[in-house]
Amino acid sequence: MVTDKILALVFDWAEVWALLIPSAILVRFRKQPPLYNLIAAYVWLSLAINLVIDLTWKLRTLLPPHLNSNNYLYNTHSVVTFVLFSTFFLKLNQPFLQTFKKVIPVIFLAFLGINFSFFESFFDYWKFSSRLLAIEAGLLLVYCLLYYFYKVKDENEMLHKHQPDFWIVTGLGIYVAVNFFIFLLYNELTVLTSQFAVQIWNVHNISYVVLNLFLARGLYESRCK
User: Number of helices (H) and strands (E), helices first, in the chain?
Assistant: First the structure.
């Protein structure tokens, strides 16, 4: 059916067009406070990486064998995402458990070194690293929970709809909470039931749209007036 094909096309390209939402805010309001330049960098870098990811997938039958896999790009996107968002959390004015928050990137770097030295290849042709994406999501979820714990703990802190970091952290929290187990189990699902794996990735795509809607709202609220 035509409708099914249109929906499939929309889902297939969601990782690209969703980023056009916060991109439009950045084009309209080009100046952002230094802290939110990290989120702007995430948007632009993700747009570039995800565009190449989807183009590689769509054109895979036309590309030479050594260029028709996009799995290393998913791994690259995961590292970029963690680096930019973890830096964002560390620069937030939330001194609560700051030492612990500084340990989280060390854990991530240690995982990268051990996992890709002994267990997996970063440039694996057949699959992206479920472990990497799951670790990234899990550690970013810890950051999100610490953010809310600080807000609840500090009587002087208030949550309100014009608070940029609230929108950004909430969008990120929804995204990583929804996708943690999808990332963790995805490679196994592709082996056991590939059709279900394709369908469940649509859940990821929907949550990615939600993330970008929240990022757009956060960037709008953080704009330099």
Answer: 9, 0
